[in-house]
Amino acid sequence: MKLTDEQQAMLDGKYGEGAAYAMKIQVGIGECFDAERMVPIKRAHVALSNQAGDLWFAEKLVAAGAKCRVAPTVNPGWCLDYFKKGWPDLTDADIEHMHRTDNAYRTLGAVLSYNCTPYVATNVPNFGEVCAFSESSAPPYVNSVWGARTNRESANSALCAGVTGFVPEYGLLLDENRKGDIVVHVEADMKSAYEYHCLGMMGDKIGEGLPVFVGLPKVITPEALRNFGAQLNTSGAYGMYHIVGFTPEAPDLETALGGKKPKHEVVITDKDLKDFAEKFSDENDGKIDFAMFGCPHFTLEEAMYIANHIEGKKLAVPMFILVSSHAAQMAERMGVTKVLNDAGAEIIPDSCPDQPVWHFLIGKTGVTESPKCAYYPRRRGLKFVLRDLDGCIEAALTGEVK
Amino acid sequence: MGKRFACHKISEGCATAEVIKTNERIMFYQVRPEDGMMDEKDHEIRGKIIAKKVLIFPGGKGSSVVQQDGLYHLDRFGNMPSALIVKDPDPVLVAGAIIMEIPMVDRIDQEFYDTVKDGDMVTVNADEGYVEIQ
Known about the structure:
The complex is a heterodimer. Chain A contains 17 helices and 14 strands. By secondary structure, chain A is of the alpha/beta class. A five-stranded parallel sheet of chain A has the order 12-11-10-13-14. In chain A, helix 10 links the parallel strand 7 (211-214) and strand 8. Chain A is globular and about 65 Å long. Chain B is an alpha/beta fold. Helices cover 19% and strands 33% of the residues of chain B. An eight-stranded mixed sheet of chain B has the order 1-10-9-3-6-7-8-2. A two-stranded antiparallel ribbon of chain B has the order 4-5. In chain B, strand 9 (121-125) and strand 10 (130-133) form a beta hairpin. In chain B, helix 1 packs parallel to helix 2. The N and C termini of chain B lie close together (7 Å). In chain B, 50% of the residues are buried. Classes of the chains: A alpha/beta, B alpha/beta. The A-B interface holds A 25, 28-29, 31-33, 47, 49, 51-54, 56-57, 134-136, 151-158, 160, 171, 233-234, 237, 376 and B 8-12, 61, 63-65, 67-73, 89-92, 94-96, 98-99, 106.
């Protein structure tokens, strides 16, 4: 790989030990994928996980004096201010760990956004812009919906990109790797954002490659696109897709495929989505203990939708709605938070279902509309039944799923 | 001298150890830190130890934190693999190996894969670009 004088100087330590370390890691990644050069970025997102390995790496960069040249937004851990207010079962070790994560990323100069949907509002790239996004829901959204360019960065490699301000040029940054090679005919009825969760979980059926979707509705909401990308990257490691007549690099099928024939075509029907949901859901006797939304983070609009449906009623089980701090503040300002709280729902900023603050839900069964919400916390002992959002709200009101 | 094959360096270093092979993708999150045993339900090498071995596998899987965090926990107990030989590297796996300083290589002739078997002693020399079956 050819480095510019500035990049070489960084690698040689002239910008400090931390920048040299970050650059060394990125050069290694670039050489692995035969990148010819490094290109500048103005935008990054780090999927910090508030886990031991991630913290070890962030603190290692801090100790080496690293500072971000491009301030990255960051994923949620859990909200110290919120959970410390008398939350059950929170240990001193958990609190200390979150404080250390907070301090390390503050010292590195990250934007402490603690939100997993930066591509919706806080960190939105332009068409064609090269950037470095980690967090499974992000690369599909950034590449496909915005037409910007990012590889599927790891949390660590995205942080390195923030420190150096460069990324190695390979993979989805190059035109030739952005063409579809699988055609997916969607015959299922895509009536809400929930169906996009299920469609995204069809990775096994779609197969490895870059899928081009045809047959989707003319209008697709940001929430649906968020769900779609999150699950596509969970089920099949897809960093990009096309929707013909909708995403910017797919005005028609021929362009989306780069004029080539697809390697295969698949059809997805209502039955496929229903079979998936039935198989994936931890079905029990119908009783649920709580409802959880916001994996990835719910938008203000979704919080308002729930508020409208439960206003003046009392929930039978607790409901947790995880959102960005921006959405939480808007909800507070608009009175949405009060409506939710009066009904028994919590709206919580900066937090993730896969964090050690949900000990009191271990062994219990929740209802959610997100397969990803069900998937990761399972290893912590939380169980989930899957329904669409209306089904989940209804279940929270009665304490039972239909 | 054993049989030597050219390879492509991903993560620097050199190590010699016993081989363990699998045809299934690996998520280091699913390996038990205390003894380096593959703990993933239904995995082809479930119950086998990958600690201090040369692990030959097709590639990684899982979200953007699972490899480095998994390797970090193995390292706390001194149970990381000694070296990694991979067919289909991805950025999450590559960053994990480089950061945790495990030698990793790819692009080796099919003959190597046809010859090498569990228990063979293999040297992975990423720096000089070869693997050698002792």
